[in-house]
């Protein structure tokens, strides 16, 4: 019986709360609306707060209060975990109020929302690139900020993700024996990320891709392609003389030398 009474009281309380909120939405008392919107925000009831703030924004547009309302709206989206909308609102805030005391924070939060949007490495990495650019912009504008170490940490993490994405893309061509495409992807990966932790793997795959391309080529193209593979072998072993791939590389270079020796004999 007590449980039933408790549920009834709770239900009545919820209905009263909803009724009060609906009345508030229809109210023309903008000061009360603003006060309650802030209360909802502080209570982390971001949907209710955002609805009230959005109702108030056109009314206060052109006044000093519009700046604060826009700031709250940005954080309401952030509080709901809607980082795409939050990032948009923070960027719009910067355009509308470039001289605001909240400008630095909004620029950082815009970049941070991009960071939070960054997807898994196998997916399109446009948000990751946007995040790196936005974080770098913040660093350039506020080089003395206490947030700089965190920004650099985020950039390193995001760049590692781009490196891994590049590695996955190249590996995909390599694993499917699409050697011309693999060669292009591997060369781009080495050029774009010369300090990559995957460099040894990339260089070996590039050598093997060139070797496999040569071995599967028509006779008229084999000599040139084997020579290209040979050059790649020496680049690889010069940089990684004790590589875990060395035995496999040596086996391939023996085949390359055996093929090319025919031309040396004839010459």
Mean pLDDT: 91
Q: How is the main sheet built?
A: none
Oligomer, anyone?
Answer: single chain
The percent range for helix content is over 70%
Cα-based radius of gyration, to the nearest Å = 30 Å
Structural class of the helix and strand makeup? mainly alpha
Q: Unreliable segments (pLDDT under 50, ≥5 consecutive)?
A: 4-17
> How many distinct helices?
12
Choose one word for the global shape: elongated
Distance between the termini: 105 Å
Portion in beta strands = under 5%
What key phrases describe this protein's structure?
267 residues, mainly alpha, 12 helices, 81% helix
Description of the structure:
The protein is mainly α and about 270 residues long. It is built from 12 helices and no strands. The chain has helices spanning about 1-25, 30-40, 45-60, 65-80, 85-95, 105-115, 125-140, 150-175, 180-190, 200-215, 220-240, 245-265. α5 runs antiparallel to α6 (about 105-115). The chain is elongated, with a radius of gyration of 30 Å.
SSE diagram, text form:
Elements: H1 2-26, H2 30-42, H3 46-60, H4 64-79, H5 83-96, H6 103-117, H7 126-141, H8 148-175, H9 179-192, H10 199-215, H11 219-239, H12 246-266
Give the gist of this structure:
This protein is an all-alpha fold and 267 residues long. The chain is 81% helix and 0% strand. It is elongated.
């Amino acid at each position: 019986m007590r449980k039933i009474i408790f549920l009834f009281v709770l239900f009545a309380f919820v209905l009263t709360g909803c009724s009060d909120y609906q009345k508030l939405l229809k109210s023309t008392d903008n000061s009360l609306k603003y006060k309650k919107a802030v209360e909802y925000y502080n209570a982390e009831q971001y949907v209710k707060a955002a609805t009230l703030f959005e109702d108030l924004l056109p009314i206060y547009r052109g006044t000093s209060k519009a700046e604060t309302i826009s700031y709250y709206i940005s954080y309401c989206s952030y509080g709901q975990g809607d980082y795409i909308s939050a990032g948009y609102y923070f960027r719009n805030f910067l355009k509308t109020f470039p001289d605001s005391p909240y400008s630095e924070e909004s620029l950082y939060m815009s970049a941070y929302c991009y960071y939070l949007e960054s997807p898994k490495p196998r997916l399109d990495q446009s948000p990751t690139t946007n995040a790196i650019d936005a974080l770098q912009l913040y660093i350039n504008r506020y080089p003395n900020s206490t947030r700089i170490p965190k920004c650099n940490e985020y950039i390193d993490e995001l760049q590692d993700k781009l490196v891994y994405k590049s590695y996955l893309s190249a590996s995909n061509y390599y694993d499917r024996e699409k050697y011309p495409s693999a060669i292009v992807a591997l060369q781009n990966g080495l050029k774009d990320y010369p300090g990559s932790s995957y460099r040894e793997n990339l260089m070996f795959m590039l050598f093997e891709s060139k070797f496999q391309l040569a071995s599967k080529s028509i006779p008229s193209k084999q000599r040139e392609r084997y020579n290209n593979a040979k050059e790649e072998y020496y680049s690889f072993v010069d940089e990684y003389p004790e590589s875990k791939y060395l035995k496999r590389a040596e086996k391939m270079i023996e085949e390359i030398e055996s093929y090319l020796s025919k031309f040396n004999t004839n010459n």
